[in-house]
Amino acid sequence: MKNITLDVSKAVQFLAEGTVKAYEPKVKAAQEALENGTCPGNDFLGWLHLPSSVTPEFMREIQDCADTLRAECEVVVVAGIGGSYLGARAVIEALGNSFAWLVADKSNPTILFAGNNIGEDYLAELTEYLKGKKFGVINISKSGTTTETALTFRLLKKQCEEQRGKEAAKKVIVAVTDATKGAARAAADKEGYKTFVIPDNVGGRFSVLTPVGLLPIACAGFDITKLIAGAVDMEHACGKDVPFEENPAAVYAAVRNGLYDQAGKKIEIMVNYQPKLHYMSEWWKQLYGESEGKDGKGIFPASCDFTTDLHSMGQWIQQGERSIYETVISIEKPNRELLFPNDEENLDGLNFLAGKRVDEVNKMAELGTRLAHVDGGVPNIRISVPELNEYYLGQLIYFFEIACGISGNVLGVNPFNQPGVEAYKKNMFALLDKPGYEAESKAIKERLEKEK
Ligand SMILES: O=P(O)(O)OC[C@H]1O[C@](O)(CO)[C@@H](O)[C@@H]1O
């Protein structure tokens, strides 16, 4: 079986000779510290050897639960936000039909995502759509107290119970949460829902290979054993004893730190040429953004879907401030085949493409863009993925996780906390007069009064 491969040749040309190699000791030290548990945030290292420690029994338990939901539900709503949402959506959208919700063959339940915003229209339209439908809910929250998810779950639980009856609803509501703490755990214990535990030592953004991601992915009909198999193989390919040059995670971590430190590249744009990978970039943005953006430091993770965004962001990338670099996820072989037809009249002048696969044009767009952007001063990292399937997504996920752990340590931050996210929550609770926030409520209201 091939592995995903990393090509940094068009990025290192923007660095002085020997720069990447000079990061080797720091990268090695970071990886040792992860392995030995001596790095900052060392109580959140449960993801490091998670793929290779998953047991067949555990996979069976997840699959059995998914099979129950698949048998009982035409729609499964996955309620969660951030790390309790993005990984599952990334994999499901990458593997699913681009028009899944319109496809008549309903051998799989429709998977919907909620609990990731507080849009009243969104929630009203969701509950309206679910009226009269046989739906189930996977309520995912590590803390069990996240407002967006808890609020959505309250609505969905009520509706599910009203439509199915309280007893029948229990069979199709599953909680993935903390072992003991939080509102999601309390509701699950009281009602007797099936539950899965998010291990304490696995942070939300590193949790896609736990039931957080595996249960929704299995519900959608995808093979979670292949996903884990890919992750296990990448765990080995990026092991701490693999020589630096042969370890893709070590090289990626070194190059991005080099570009940031030595070449003033403060923004990394994750690029795909397959719209199905849009949420893969969203997942990656949280992984790297929450892990590295702190202490006044960190590369800003952005994303573009090409060629779509070449017609909106292409100008900026080609000629705007030279503070960016690109990392391209390139799928070597599409799963489907479509040839351009010949047209007698050739009014569009496209007969030169007749008989060619659509992907041939896409690949030339990718190569042409790479050359143009590199010429324009944008370093280019390329991750080549042999095929878009469960196995290679498993590889990609673990590759980004381990590279993130290494990169954050090289940067000199704790990659496993996210203290900054609390600031908006504190203000929101104060503004909503949440019990326990009386002093903050008073202070924020006085401040707003003054700012009027
Ligand atoms: O799983 P939870 O606890 O609901 O958290 C969801 C997300 O919210 C955050 O805690 C940020 O507030 C993320 O780190 C996390 O992935």
Automatic annotation (TrEMBL):
Record's subcellular location: Cytoplasm
Q: Where is the active site?
A: E290, K425
Concerning PANTHER family, the annotation shows: GLUCOSE-6-PHOSPHATE ISOMERASE (PTHR11469)
UniProtKB keywords:
Cytoplasm, Gluconeogenesis, Glycolysis, Isomerase
A single GO BP: glucose 6-phosphate metabolic process
Q: Which leading EC class covers this enzyme?
A: isomerase
Q: Which GO terms describe its molecular function?
A: carbohydrate derivative binding; glucose-6-phosphate isomerase activity; monosaccharide binding
Role noted for this protein: Catalyzes the reversible isomerization of glucose-6-phosphate to fructose-6-phosphate.
Could you tell me which InterPro entries the record lists for this protein? G6P_Isomerase, Phosphoglucose_isomerase_CS, SIS_dom_sf, SIS_PGI_1, SIS_PGI_2
Pathway of action: Carbohydrate degradation; glycolysis; D-glyceraldehyde 3-phosphate and glycerone phosphate from D-glucose: step 2/4; Carbohydrate biosynthesis; gluconeogenesis
Family the UniProt entry places it in? Belongs to the GPI family.
Tell whether Isomerase is among the UniProt keywords.
yes
Q: What is this protein called?
A: Glucose-6-phosphate isomerase
To which species is this protein native? Marseilla massiliensis
Q: Which NCBIfam families match?
A: PRK14097.1
Q: What does the record give as EC number? A: 5.3.1.9
